[in-house]
Structures are given as structure tokens and as C-alpha cells.
Model the fold of this input.
Amino acid sequence: MKIFVSSYALAKPGAPWDRGGESALFDALARLDLAGLELPYYGRLHAHDDEWLIGRLRPGWRFVLTLLPGTMDRLKDDKRFGLASVDPDGRKRALDFAYSATRAVERLHDRLGAAAVRAVAVHSAPRLDGSGAKSNLECFADSLSWIRSWDWSGAEILVEHCDAASTGRPPEKGFLRVEDECAAVKLSQGAVPARMLVNWGRSAVETRSIEGPIEHIRLCRDAGLLAGLFLSGTAASDPDYGAWKDSHAPFSVSRGSSLLTIPAAREALAQAGELSYVGLKVQPLPVSVDVYGRLALLRENLDALRSAGA
Done:
């Protein structure tokens, strides 16, 4: 199976835009044998220039559009924002944001051809971090029903599991439990298909173990909902990637502290079975790594994922 690569994690998120470096990055991505890219959605398609991005996308690629970057941006100042929020206004704001993504899908299809966007990833915010925000699976199921009633131009909806809130420590994301997300998908209704997406690193962060991703994969698989698996690492301790952070650490072949090993990926893929989406999401750190170092890291990690059976 060909692999989806998260393009925005490979760039320099949060740093001043290096147009030349990112152009070189996309030129190199176009020469690789990929299924396509995971693209971020902020309320726009690129943090700096939508038209520039669309012009760099290779015809024939397929895309997974993730709403997580825009969701996290909004949660900084809007604690009750989220598709699972029990606050009606916070949930409406999240639904309005999600609905705006339908226009981004249309735009990509107009420029790149029908079916360019295969899936749109949504998330069960808000953060349950003691700020007073609350969520539940019933509200999330209702939001999913709204989302599944809209015209996504042939794309399906993927609920990407992020780390759930845990007692005794601050979460990275702090969204709903994977069990609740699966229940919400099953409760929801609509013409647009909806399934689950597991991120290895985020499940490891939640459970503080390499067994956690396997548990989440099995749960989604046994529910008949598992559509995809994205491989992204984490570390118990690392000077750049932190301790149990959702910082998209690479495979251990590139960073010895990473818990994402080739055997761990092989086990995850074996447990998952047949998948529609297999992805790689790695962030080169420190930020000072140049485009050539970023591409070298990507190639090394693509090789690792392929050797694990992808």
C-alpha cells in the first residue's frame, strides 16, 4: 500500500515561513512514490498562502484533510469550542468551522480533479483539562450526524483519536475516549460514511505505553470502524521531542529515544489488518534542521515504515 505523508509536520510549523525551503520540500515530495498527503485545515489550506500550496500539489495525489490544526488554534482562546462540546454555542462554532471545510474540499476538487480529497479528519474537542469545558459522546454523535448530512464531494469522514483526558496529569489534547468516539460514530447518521483513524503516537501518549496503540487499534477494528493508521512517534524523554508529547517523533532508527520501533509498527499494522489509509507523520527537530535534513529524515522513516510491512 502506498503511504500518505503529513506535509505540514515536515515543514517548520510555528516558524517564519521559508517559502524557498518549503518549495524544495514539495518538489521532493512530488518525486516520491506516495499515495498523497495529509493537509492541514486552519480555516484555510495553508498558514500563509493557499494558492501557493495548491500550485505545489501533484496531480494524481490523494489527500486527507485534517481539521486538527484549526481546532487547536481555536481552543487557545475558546475553551468550549468543539464538536463534542456540551455548550451549544461552542459546538455551533465548531460545526461552522467544520462546514467551512466543505468549501476547501470543493476548491481542491475544482483545481485537482474529482476525488482528490479522500477523507476529512475531525476530532472530539474540547479539551478536558480542568478549564471548565465539558463534552460527551451524545453531543459528538449529533455533530457527526450534521457533518455526515453535508456534501463532501465524495470524501468520507474520519474521526481521528487523540489522547483522552487522564486523571493526575495534564493532557496533550484531552478529547473523548476512543470507546466514546466509536460509540458516537455508530450513533450518528447520514449519507456520508464515517470511520475511525488511529495515530500510534497519540495513543501511546494517552496510555504511556507501546501497548496502548494496539489496544486502540483492536477496539476500532473489532467495532468494524478502523479505516486508517498513521505512524507517529513519542518518547518518554527527549531533549527535542519532550516527555510523552504529541510532537511527532520519528522512528527509533532516526531518534534512539523514540518508542516507535520497526517491530512496534509491524505489530500495529498486523493487528489493524486491511486499511484504507496508512500514513507517516514525523516532525524534524530541532526547527533549525534544513530542508535537506528534513527530506533525509522522511526517506529514512518511509524506509522504516515499509520494512514494517506498509
Remarks:
- The chain is about 40% helix and 15% strand.
- The chain has a mean pLDDT of 96.
- Strands lie at 4-6, 36-40, 62-66, 117-122, 156-161, 194-199, 226-231, 277-280.
